[in-house]
Amino acid sequence: SGGIMTDLGTFGGSRSVAYGINDSRQVVGYQDFGYPSVISRAFLYSGGGSTLLGTLGGSGSSGAGINSNGQVAGSADTSSGYGHAFLYSGGIMTDLGTIGGPGSTAFGINDNGQIVGNANTSSGATHAFLYSGGHMTDLGTLGGSVSEALGINNNGQVVGADDTGFKWHAFLYSGGIMTDLNSLTPTNSGWTLSQATAINDSAQID
Prior knowledge:
The protein is mainly beta. It has no helices and 16 strands.
């Protein structure tokens, strides 16, 4: 910031990684913890110092995104050994669960506390999810068995990537409908949109 890179440090390990920042300059990611047995734990950097966010009963965790209210989305190990998506808010880490399978991962959060990522289904597939109002919704796929939601705006529109069964395609999920973004481009463009990672409130997609 301002042309200066500030070292956010670690908790005794050799490595730290930042994945998200909000307008209050709060940063989330993971930092190595402990020595010689190194564990990676989610952290929240705020006001010049870092706080470890803990786990869901397992050993490791990582923060993926933070909204303007300081709520953090990420993934943490459970006592079962599987990782689950979490919401960290008001000092409490909440397990968001799955959509029938053993694991889930969070990638993004908006200012309304809605969270996106991917989760295992009972059939062993991996599907994009939207967590809203205390409920995790399976967003389905574009025809393959794997999809992942990577970004969400404050209007609840979701973007991500889907293995269509032939190749990866970027998608937009809006109003309950998943749309292949390649269907919105000219057929002779020469482009294949394989992944969408972010969407702003004007529905511009990266």
